[in-house]
Amino acid sequence: MNGQFHVPATGWLHALDMRVKLCMTLVVVVLCSVWGNWMFLAAMLVVMHVMLLTDHVPARHVGRLWAVLGPLCALVAIIMLLSMNAYGTGVLWQLGWWRVTSQTLMMCLVVVLRIADIVLALFLTLFTTSHADWVRGLTGLHLPLTAARRMARAVNVVPQWFAVFRERRLMRASRGAGGGFAAFGDTWAALRLRERRASVAALTRGAQMHTGSAKPTVMRPAHMRLADWLVLLIVVLVAAGVAAMVALGW
Fold this sequence. Notes:
The chain is mainly alpha-helical. It has helices at about 10-15, 20-35, 40-55, 60-85, 100-130, 130-140, 145-155, 155-175, 180-205, 225-245; strands at about 90-95, 100. Strands 1-2 form a two-stranded antiparallel ribbon. The protein is flat, with a radius of gyration of 23 Å. The two termini are about 40 Å apart. The mean pLDDT is about 80.
């Protein structure tokens, strides 16, 4: 990993306002958590892959995500199949005490699709939002600049940790030292040191200096374009349509 989830590209998702993408992600997460219709969940999974494809996100990044997400979904499905042997009446296959029913398979399918949809919805924003866009978008939501910078750094703490861990492991290996678990402590220490240096550098540049009643702001504030409003309108209409279908018991 290069220390961030963001994948540099020039697609339409990258050009969207971060607030619209965040709203889109929250809507998908809520809808997929509330509605357990497997056809809707499968359709959302296809739609999000098409969105990433049309945004020109390299397939290798989506493949790396599935390299972790795929085994996790398989593990969840196996655990459910082993622990829900008494659920349902439509027995499809039985071996001693363990049986597989159509209801169990359907529930496994719904749970796996939900996990995949929620994770992919999160990465839809993470892949297409840079650090600067995070700061601009969060300040556009009236979050203080200092808090926005901290949240933007926290978003990428996982890839940062892996990048530093790989670096520390290679450094220890070059010195002939153990490069496995011994590098864990070095990684956390290096992350804390980098965070402290970033804070000191920000203070040196006057990040916390106020001129009278004026507060520090971003150089290029976030603003909604016509395309952003159109996408937001589509998201709201889709959410309203799904909510209506849920209310009608579809």
